[in-house]
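Re-run requested by the PI after the first attempt was lost when the workstation crashed. Everything re-entered from the original request form. Ligand of interest: zinc ion.
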Amino acid sequence: MNTTIGPDDCLLVIDVQNDFMPGGALAVPHGDEVVPVINRLARAFGHVVLTQDWHPVSHVSFAANHAGTQPFQTLALPYGEQVLWPVHCVQGTPGAALHAGLHVPHARLVIRKGHHADVDSYSAFLEADRTTRTGLAGYLREHGVRRVFCAGLATDYCVAWSALDARAAGFAAAVIEDACRAIDLEGSLAKAWQDLGAAGVARVTSAELLKGQG
Ligand code: VGL
Ligand code: ZN
């Protein structure tokens, strides 16, 4: 993929929230390390969109809302298999806030996802029922975006699903590997890279995108 950033490119910064940081409710190992990388990348993009995982306390993805279950097990739900998580990113709580060190003042849009109590949404585009849209594809199209560069947390869940759905919606898509960190449950990271490659999502580094920048 051509790694020169231009006006048709958007940086999609996924779920850089306190609950995904070390010590958080659903900590992603080394999740905080993406913050300086994303801050550097964001200066190279004229167009940046952020997402926040944004759940009601009654959310279907929380193990605490299913008697007799534990976090990180799976449960069959009407829309498919769901991993059950610790309570995380509850709307309006400090854990759901963006990391204080994230410095992207020119970000134009924040998409909040996973707000329906009965459906999860790893993807910034399409909820886990694979039907309900967030509106992000339409927004990006209206702004003439052609390529979506994904960064943030977690590589194997919200980043991968968002990149796959960007591709499915007709955008060129890339995952910036060193601007992401993974949860890696039972091989989920290897599977994510495999699925991304098969779908034609490019794998790039921040160094490739920033070369030639000051
Ligand atoms: C995420 C699990 C549950 C993510 C969100 O941001 O990757 N993972 N909710
Ligand atoms: Zn979540």
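Saved to the shared folder this time. The pocket of pyrazine-2-carboxylic acid (ligand 1) is lined by residues 15, 53, 85, 122, 153-154, 157-158 (CB under 6 Å).
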